[in-house]
Amino acid sequence: MDASETTTPGDPKRASFTRWAVIGAWFVLTLAAHVYVARYGSAIPFMDDMELASALLPGAELDWAWFWAPANEHRIVIPRFVYMLGLWTTGDFRSGMYFQVFAQALTALLLILAAWRLRGRPSLADAFFPLLLLHWGNSENFLLGMQITIAVPIALTAVFVATALRRPGAPGHGSAIVMVLCVLLLPLNGGFGLMQMPPLVAWMLGAAWFLRRSESPEERAAARVFGMGAAAAFALVAYYFVDFRFPAHTARTYEPWPILRTAVQFLSLNVGPMAERQRWLAPLGVLGFAALAAVVALVRWKQREERLRIAAVLAGLAAACTIAAAIGVSRSPTGTSAGLANRYVILPTTLWITAFLGLCVFGPRKLALAAQSFACLALAVVLLHDFCYGAWYGARHHGAATALEESIRAGFPYEDVVEQNWRAFYPDPYGFGARLLQLRQAGYPPFDDLAAGSSWPASDPWFMFRPRPRRVDAPEPAAPRRVPGGNALVLRADSTVELVPESGATRLTARFGLLPNAWKGAGPGEPHSDGLRFVVEAVTPGEAPRVLFERTLRPHAEADDRGMQSLDVELPRAAKLELFLRTQNVSGEHREFDFGFWADVRAQ
User: Which residues of the chain register pLDDT less than 50?
Assistant: First the structure.
């Protein structure tokens, strides 16, 4: 007898005790996660959360272009919307952190109920779900609101798999709609959702083909929903990659061994931060649990009526593997332990969630219960380690926020505050300083009830430059502006931006282009910019100026010249180096339309 067959009801009192024990475990871990955010979370934004500072300024335009603009290689529409909604409602950056706790607690509860339904009875092993999703080892995510971009895709994929397994045979029309919506929302959470899509879309195509000639009108309706959903998914993915570019500072590898090593490390994070210590045992346990679920499902393949559910188990497992492979390609160049980054702890849990639910449906009763109990026990054993790790990380995080607030309260000059605190908050001092000034202007912590010293400058309009320009010459005042694809400094030709890179800088990366209204004009036949020439010139003492980059854009005539363009050049080796970024008119006409921009300028 397997777990999907009808079983004789057990002792009602024992079943009731089991349900309350599992719900009790869920409640305690949910409460502990809330306590964690309340104890260690800071209203001062860190890292990725600081990227929202410019959106909080008075007059900021939050249109579709802003929500769709890439954050590195991710288009994070849903996380941005959810986070901004929380900020508008509460005025507190911790809203994103509490949303994660809520989303993961709700996901764990729904999965508990799904396991009871699929198995036909509760089990103490179902405490597996809150242990997997709500432990303190998830500290880097719980304390960084923008990690909503991880919490939401996990919930969507889990709902997809649980809905596919909900009943024997094919999903109904309503279930099909829910599953399609889950898939279509995935890419709106960036690459973490996008890279889980292929197996799920493949399942929908297979279900549409399998059910298209069913004798059941309900199943034929489901087939149409899956078919249209797959077509919409292809269209959405195509739209995702319109004007898509990998950031210039990122690297990728396609060598099999580094990809495999990083992918296995990533999947081993199902057991939490303990995977860092157990480099062999953790992946063996994680992959063994998933492999068992795949095998017991495939054993039932001859039962035609169960093939869609079997395929759903395989698709859920594969979704975790595709995101693991993507992490392997994109993160392997950063080091031999790249897959063990703690910010990924919750991301691979699709693997174990699917395996657990698959065993509920297809596993022989005793084997399924033993495997599920083993997985639950493993998570319980490492819970103390998760607690200690989370407490250590949380104390460090909260201490950095306290140190920043104290330095501002003490009236330290702007430069001193930046120099003393930037390493805990942002990858470089220039970006940290610019975003700190934006928070000050917006009235958000650490400035909600504090006044910075008189030596503090006004909000920095040059935050898209690293380092900040030493001088800007332009016919009209340069101004920061939101353009399709990011924040940019808009200048009218002819203009020059002068930069002095720090000693040791080896490369200059930047994005540039023309404002759409400049090259389009007011309408067909109306005046417009004839184009702009973008030049990067290097000057070193005792040498003639050297042109490092030059490109002329004529977007009215050339489609490839429209939108954001990129440059990446090697800088001369010199003790003293000055860079001049020039924007020049190319025809001598229509200068009133010659507005170009520079964005993401980094000399590093």
Answer: 1-8
